[in-house]
Amino acid sequence: MEIRTVPTTPYSDQKPGTSGLRKAVAVFQQPHYLENFVQSIFNTLTDYQGKTLVVGGDGRYYNRTAIQVILKMAAANGFGKVMVGQGGILSTPAVSCLIRKYQAFGGIVLSASHNPGGIHGDFGIKYNVSNGGPAPEKITEAIYAQSKTISSYRILEAGDVDIDRLGTSKLGDMVVEVIDPVTDYAQLMESIFDFERIHELLTNGRFHMKMDAMHAVTGPYAYNILEYRLGAPIGTVINSKPLEDFGGGHPDPNLVYAKELVDILYSDDAPDFGAASDGDGDRNMILGRRFFVTPSDSLAILAHYAQVVPAYREGIKGIARSMPTSQAADRVAQKLGVPCYETPTGWKFFGNLLDADRVTLCGEESFGTGSNHVREKDGLWAILFWLNILAVTQKSVAEIVTNHWATYGRHFYSRHDYEEIPTDRAEDLMANLRANLGQLQGKQFNSRYTVAYADDFSYTDPIDGSVSRNQGIRIGFTDGSRLVYRLSGTGTKGATLRVYLEQYEPDPYKQQQDAQTALKDLIALADTIGQITHCTGRTAPTVIT
Ligand code: G16
Questions:
Q1: What single DSSP character describes residue 256?
Q2: Pairing relationship of beta strands 21-24 and 167-171 according to DSSP bridges
Q3: Where are the alpha helices (DSSP H) in 180-294?
Q4: Which tens digit of pLDDT belongs to each residue from 418-448?
Q5: Which of 130, 158, 180 represents a domain boundary (last residue)?
Q6: Ligand 1 pocket, 113 CB below 6 A?
Q7: How much distance in Å is there from the Cα of 19 to the middle of ligand 1?
Q8: Is the Cβ atom of 212 under 6 angstroms away from ligand 1?
Q9: Residues of the domain holding 78
């Protein structure tokens, strides 16, 4: 088998976003596009010769094609071994688990996460480092720099590897091991949670749940863990077969896109518990009977109950949340006497804090929660955590959440997304906000809202001192309310403006309102300050979560 060095020319648009490079499939299908990016990754790495790489994806269209290319390029670039999930399947948290367990050099995850898939959908690729987490900014910047000057890539001239059959084969000098995608991850979950108590809950005949895998990667994991290992009734996991186009759906577990599950949980004979996860299995949505748990509240509640879970019995070291995530978790951290860190959006910012053992739990408003067990957010982990809490407390989801609000106060929270707006308009809106920050300080908008601070969030990593600027406009009010504006780093069409709204309510009698009603005045203020309608021409958001 011969190693070929193929001449190529750079593409100018290979800058990784919040989570890797995400583009329409058609973009990835351009000549050498994928190869350029993969070689750019390899060019930034040192001392990987002979070492192991983990490769897998969420099963979306182009996954299998990309894996064959990556295998041949890994062999040509000198990796010693690639571990690949059978059928090309590996969830994002499973990749993180495998890198850590087998001390691999790194991993490549093929996914555009919650973005739609299929031939007309999106594809994505991200590199994870040896701690199992997403490459930090200095590496993604280096990959981007490589992609702008690349002139050739290396690939092995060889036939395709059979990735559907478990076992080991050779590709040139490199070993390819096709592994079961689920086993190692399921064992990790078993080592964290009280499987006996969860088994009792799921088989007592009184408790009912549904888990929507949205035809994405979590299906085989959820089936194995919930139905096979924990004994939940067959049919507990719906839409469990991963499909290349996610069955035409949008594998984003929120109230809009997980409609089938939401309808079940809001029906007359709704089960007690509902959960969904996204394309690559790292996000989660938690529902009770006719009850939605915001991801921000979920993080705070997991932190409050952490000690019911065997792995966290000794208590947690600290919590980290992304800046736009509500401050509900901060209150729990304060009560527990542990630190709470505020990081920019993107799971990669949690890696250093987890490695340094400063935090145990992390979470984001974007339906992501996780812990120090891996270095990615983890959808099924969050679902098992909730089941563990429900099994131990024997309370309903609604009781748990409303008790939490009564104890700590409620952080009313919502995110309004304006999708596919022209990029120049979105950038103008942000530029105007930035330009006006100085004038906002101290300004009063009505009897309730006086600006306490207004800034463009900047983060200095407490471990390595690296600084990340321009991470979103924060406007905080004297009553503790907040407005945050930022542009998404994961969209692939135009720009997506995200407006995050948060308001604190300590009075239990006022906590039962619907969030949109409670936030009504703040929503209006977001338009006044951000000039959203004026700049975008939109009078309403595309998605409200
Ligand atoms: C990714 C990141 C998350 C981030 C989310 C939304 O999630 O890993 O940290 O919160 O995108 O980012 P943005 O607001 O920039 O669109 P995923 O699940 O898409 O990989």
A1: T
A2: unpaired
A3: 183-192, 195-202, 218-222, 259-265
A4: 999 999 999 999 999 999 999 999 999 988 8
A5: 180
A6: yes
A7: 6
A8: no
A9: 2-180
Q: Indicate if 205 and 271 belong to the same structural domain.
A: yes
Q: Is the CB of 366 under 6 A from ligand 1?
A: yes
Cβ neighbours for 354, distance < 8 A, ≥ 6 positions apart: 131, 133, 320, 362, 372, 375
Domain-ending residue, one of 390, 408, 426? 408
Task: Flag the least confident range among 93-107, 368-382, 436-450.
Answer: 436-450
Indicate whether 237 and 344 sit together in one domain: yes
Whole-number Å distance, alpha carbon 345 to ligand 1 midpoint, is 7
Closest CA to 544 of 494, 501, 484: 501
Whether 320 and 388 map to the same domain: the answer is yes
| Cα angle value 287/293/297 (rounded, 5°) | 150
pLDDT of residue 448: 87
47's CB contacts (< 8 A; 6+ apart) are none
Asked whether 126 lines ligand 1 (CB < 6 A), one says: no
| Same structural domain, 247 and 340 | yes
Average pLDDT over residues 352-368: 97
CATH of the domain at 194: 3.40.120.10
Helix (H) or strand (E) holding 237: strand 237-238
pTM for this structure? 0.95
Tell whether the model's pLDDT for residue 417 goes beyond 80.
yes
**pLDDT reported for residue 258:** 94
* Mean pLDDT rounded to a whole number for the chain: 96
User: Would the pLDDT of 416 be above 80?
Assistant: yes
Do 38 and 173 reside in the same domain of the chain?
Answer: yes
Cα of 400 from ligand 1 centre, angstroms: 27
Q: Which two tokens stand for residue 28?
A: 């990835």
Phi, psi of 66 (to 5 degrees): -65, -40
| pLDDT (average), residues 328-356 | 96
Residue 1 has pLDDT above 90, yes or no: no
Look at ligand 1, atom 18, and give the residue with the nearest C-alpha.
Answer: 113
Quote the tokens at residue 301.
Answer: 């509640």
Asked if 12 and 113 sit in the same domain, the reply is yes
Q: Does an H or E element contain 499, and which?
A: strand 495-505
pLDDT at position 493 is: 84
**Rounded CA gap, 429 and 212, in Å?**
37
Number of structural domains the chain divides into: 3
pLDDT confidence bin for 400, thresholds 50/70/90: very high
Same domain, 57 and 192: no
pLDDT of residue 116: 93
Query: Which residues face 486 on adjacent strands?
Result: 498
336 and 193 part of one domain: yes
The answer to whether 111 is a known catalytic residue is no
Give the pairing type, strands 174-179 and 81-89. Answer: parallel
Choose among 465, 508, 469: nearest CA to 486: 469
